[in-house]
Specification:
homodimer, alpha+beta, 156 residues
Chain lengths: 156, 156
């Protein structure tokens, strides 16, 4: 059976997972938000095999989440910089971190705290309604069901 | 080379990805938020192979994101219900959907709109500071660097 290509599904979440959902890719993006830009730094920080890192960075560039930019002529050196599309992944990664802080880490394990510069407090993200600002939960939103023909398309 | 076990890393995002980051698992959780509870309904809706679905549902139960509950005695039938730990994944999935709506879907493709019941408007989630409510971006937060020994642990 062929590997499922999630990018061919008519569903936003599936397609996102097809583009950037691979675990190493998300960890690379997480590192990019922490300021990592260079191949060797990603490699060292993630402890990832160089061929896998090279493949994932290539895909993230191909999909437009990172730009590969030359920063030195002699020797020729490149670094990877977040694009607008990549920066927009911030809420996903921050939400993953919050979930993990609560549900995946032991009580005695150190967490990476994030400070909101403006208010100076350690913060975590709360999903707010883009219209009125109230906190969104699974219990106060209603998702429109897709029509049947779209469900068929979603099945791919 | 052995497959990386992300759950052994001392990093919140990596561990989260190790627990629930597999693409089918996240799509199953997405379906659970849309109200899907039964094996055959997941199978039909996702177009997933039954053995893969069985494996992923088992892992989600094992990790405590879904409960397997008997809902019929004759015949014996079970369904899968979100736990508190599973419900807490809502911001992750909603953020994935938002990113995909903007960056992964074509202009002519239908999106699954979500309405905020209280204000009645189509909504998407904006990450707000848990302390002051202001919108969080990569440019107005500061992540604490982990000490070196924790980085070593993070490398696994």
């Amino acid at each position: 059976m062929a590997r499922t290509d999630f990018t061919e599904r008519a569903c936003s979440v599936a397609r996102t997972l097809g583009l950037v959902g691979e675990q190493w890719s998300l960890l690379i993006m997480r590192d990019a938000f922490l300021g990592v830009r260079r191949f060797d730094d990603f490699q060292q920080h993630l402890g990832i095999a160089r061929n896998i890192l090279s493949d994932r960075l290539g895909k993230l560039v191909e999909h437009g989440l990172l730009n590969r930019v030359q920063y030195s002529e002699r020797p020729v050196r490149h670094e990877y910089r977040l694009t607008r599309k990549g920066i927009d992944l911030f809420p996903v990664l921050f939400a993953l971190q919050k979930w993990g802080d609560i549900w995946a880490m032991g009580d005695d394990e150190p967490l990476r705290s994030v400070v909101h510069d403006a208010c100076g407090k350690v913060t975590h993200p709360v999903p707010a309604c883009s219209h009125c600002g109230e906190t969104l939960t699974p219990f106060n939103v209603t998702a429109s069901p897709l029509p049947l023909d779209e469900l068929a398309a979603e099945r791919g």
